[in-house]
Structures are given as structure tokens and as C-alpha cells.
Amino acid sequence: MNTQVAEATEAETEETRGATQKKLKRKKYEKELARLHVELVELQEWVKYKGLKICIVFEGRDGAGKGGTIKAIAERVSPRVFRVIALPAPSDREKTQMYLQRYVPHLPAAGEVVIFDRSWYNRAGVERVMGFCTEEQAAKFLKGVPLVEKAMVESGIQLIKYWLEVSPEEQTRRLQARIEDGRKIWKLSPMDLKSYSRWYDYSRARDEMFAATDSEFAPWYVARSDDKKRARLNIISHLLGHLSYEEAPRGKVKLPKRRKAGDYRDPNYPFKFVDELF
């Protein structure tokens, strides 16, 4: 782990303790994010070199900022190493399977980082609150999932679970923005609207989920996400500080000389160029 990352993580943790913080300025955010992206690439190369298996779970209420945080993590690394999994609603066939069965094929193999944008914890959250599973099914899930996660960890998977905590006021502002902004309307699903009024039902479900699944081998980490930029930096810093990695060995890279054109000539072909409007 890079010393600067560890120091930054500690400093940002101290900073987030203030209840009345100003929003993080974009210039500072972009500077810090660029620095962290370099570290994420270094982590990626170490994961490939050592054949590590890392699984990151993101959970939280609608509008908590999961998608933006995952995008910030994944935008400068290889999608072949950092795989983002966001499963749709289960098919009729999948509904008849063992609940965790459809998630298992997506778990990381050697040299992979898998990020779940929502995960098997749907059963403890949205499915339970919205009545898509019975209370008995939810209880069985909460009892059994620590055993599955322990088996994952014992198989060599490093499992990291994040819960993004957004305030009711900020959630309202973000969901309202999805209604009013044509760029964001696709983010607003009928389920968002149905679940919006059930804030405290989700709170109770979250509390029971934490009590049952916040284990020593797979703990939950909570990030305040009212300031999305600050939350992204804090989570990436925590992730880098949580994992042990070094600079992977690699030789110096030098571009070779291009071969001469020889008998090649540019073709006299009527290419259809895109209009240059800008």
C-alpha cells in the first residue's frame, strides 16, 4: 500500500467527521481523483501479477451515489480486470434457483476485481421492503449469507462491503433532479418512486442486515455520501488503504520504429468523413 494513500485516507477520515462541511471543490476533487486513479492502476497491475481475487459490494438507498462511485473507480482501469456487475431482475428460471446461485458465476477468478452494483443483499433490502420475498425467506438469507461469505473468504476472495449513507433531504433532492433533468430521467425507475416513501422500512431492514452480516471476516464499511465527490474520494482511499499491494515488476516500455511505407500508397477512395461541426 502506498504511504501517501494511507495518509490521505486518515486525513480524509478526520475531515469527514465535521457535520457541517462545505461541498468539495471540483478542482480539488479532480486533482485528488487523478492521484487515486494512478494508485488504482498500480493495484490493478499487482492484482494481475499476484493473481488476487477481490470482490467489492456496493449497497445503499436509491440515490445514495453507488453508480457514480463505481464509475469513478472503474473509469481509468481495464474492464477486463475491474468487472462491474449490475444484474437485472431475475428471470422466471432464476427465481426457482437457490437464491445466491445467479451471483456465484460472477465472483472473481485470479487476477480480477469484481464490483457489484447491488448484490445478493437485494434480498435483505429492496426485496424484503417491497414484498418480493417473504419474511421467512429474508430471515433464512440473513442467517445463511455469513456462511457463504466465509466460504468465499476462505477460498481466497478478498470481500469488501460498502454501504453508502445518504440523508433523506439529499435523497429527495437527487430523485427530484432525476425527474427534472432530461439527462437523468433514465435513472428514475418505478421502483424508486414506490420505495421513496418507505424510508424507515429501509432503515429497519438495513439495521437488521448489519446486525446479522457485519462479520469479522466480511465487515460493512459505511460512507457518508451527501457530498458525492467527497464520498468517492473517501471510498477509493479506503479501498486502496484496505488492500495490500506493491508496484508490480515491469520492464521499460519503448515504442519501436515504424516500418517504411515501401510500395504502399494512400488509396484514392471516397471515404465518408464525419461532418466536422466543432
Set down the secondary structure blueprint:
Layout (H helix, E strand, L loop, with lengths): L2 H13 L10 H25 L2 E8 L5 H9 L7 E4 L6 H4 L16 E6 L8 H4 L5 H20 L2 E9 L2 H13 L9 H7 L2 H15 L6 E5 L3 H15 L36
Parallel strand pairs: 1-3, 1-4, 2-3, 4-5
Helix pairs in contact: 1-10, 2-10, 3-10, 6-9
What does this structure look like?
Helix 4 (92-95) links the parallel strand 2 and strand 3 (112-117). Residues 3-19 have low confidence and may be disordered. The chain has a five-stranded parallel beta sheet, with helices on both faces. The chain is α/β, with parallel strands linked by helices. Helices cover 45% and strands 12% of the residues. The chain has helices at 3-15, 26-50, 66-74, 92-95, 126-129, 135-154, 168-180, 190-196, 199-213, 228-242; strands spanning 53-60, 82-85, 112-117, 157-165, 220-224. The chain has one domain: P-loop containing nucleotide triphosphate hydrolases (Rossmann fold, 3-Layer(aba) Sandwich), CATH 3.40.50.300.
Sum up the structure in keywords.
alpha/beta, Rossmann fold, 5-stranded parallel beta sheet, 10 helices
Number of β-strand runs: 5
Named CATH topology? Rossmann fold
Assembly state:
single chain
**What is the count of DSSP helices, taking H or I runs of 4+ residues?**
10
Q: For the largest sheet, list the strands in their spatial order.
A: 2-3-1-4-5
> What's the average pLDDT?
92
Proportion of strand residues: 5-15%
What is the H/E order? HHEHEHEHHEHHHEH
CATH architecture: 3-Layer(aba) Sandwich
What is the terminal separation in angstroms? 44 Å
Sheet of most strands:
5 strands, parallel
Name given to the CATH homologous superfamily:
P-loop containing nucleotide triphosphate hydrolases
Helix content estimate: 40-55%
Gross morphology is globular
Poorly predicted ranges:
3-19
Q: Which value, in Å, is the CA radius of gyration?
A: 22 Å
CATH class: Alpha Beta
Provide the structure class.
alpha/beta
What is the count of distinct domains?
Answer: 1
